[in-house]
Automatic annotation (TrEMBL):
This is ABM domain-containing protein. InterPro entries: ABM_dom (IPR007138), Dimeric_a/b-barrel (IPR011008). It comes from the Bacteria. Keywords: Signal. It comes from Leptospira ognonensis. Residues 1-23 form the signal peptide. Residues 55-119 form the ABM domain. SUPFAM superfamilies: Dimeric alpha+beta barrel (SSF54909).
Length: 158
């Protein structure tokens, strides 16, 4: 009986630990002062959730590409800010980026750096979900609980 309780406690703790996540704070673009913004300005919120699997090499390549894309964001026209979150021991990760327009977001998606990340990081991605929406700038950033809800309820899978 004692062994069974220990196993149940271990499984509970393991489940809790694997769902814990760490996140970067929302970082506003270094070029934000060059954009005319009011609290009421409508912005585009882009969310991504990925489930990462594969070899250690695949995962390492994925995170290298994520780092490279993050470093390039401030150079992208229309980028206002963003954050990233990852489960500590689990397979899921999320991105949150905010853009001045759909066109700015599309330009980023088509950029060389993002295309490279998609190509080289793809072997590590088991599933992916995406969400886009329009919000007032004053609503940014949203909480990670809202991110998960939006992706679960309104996101599209690819």
């Amino acid at each position: 009986m004692k062994k069974r309780v220990q196993i149940m406690v271990f499984l509970f703790v393991w489940q809790w630990i694997t769902s814990c996540a760490v996140a970067t704070p929302f970082q506003r673009s270094a070029k934000l002062d060059q954009v005319e913004m009011t609290p009421e300005t409508i912005v585009i919120l882009a969310l991504t959730e990925v489930e990462i699997t594969g070899t250690s090499s695949d995962k390492s390549s994925f995170w290298e590409r994520v780092t490279s894309v993050r470093k390039s964001l401030d150079e992208m026209p229309g980028y206002l800010g963003g954050a990233i979150r990852k489960e500590i021991l689990g397979p899921r990760a999320w991105t949150l980026t905010v853009w001045t327009s759909e066109e700015a977001l599309e330009q980023f998606v088509a950029s060389r750096e993002h295309e490279r990340a998609m190509r080289e990081g793809a072997p590590a991605v088991k599933t992916s979900k995406f969400y886009r929406g329009k919000y007032a700038w004053k609503e940014m950033p949203i909480g990670w609980d809202v991110v998960e809800k939006l992706i679960d309820e309104e996101g599209r899978k690819e």
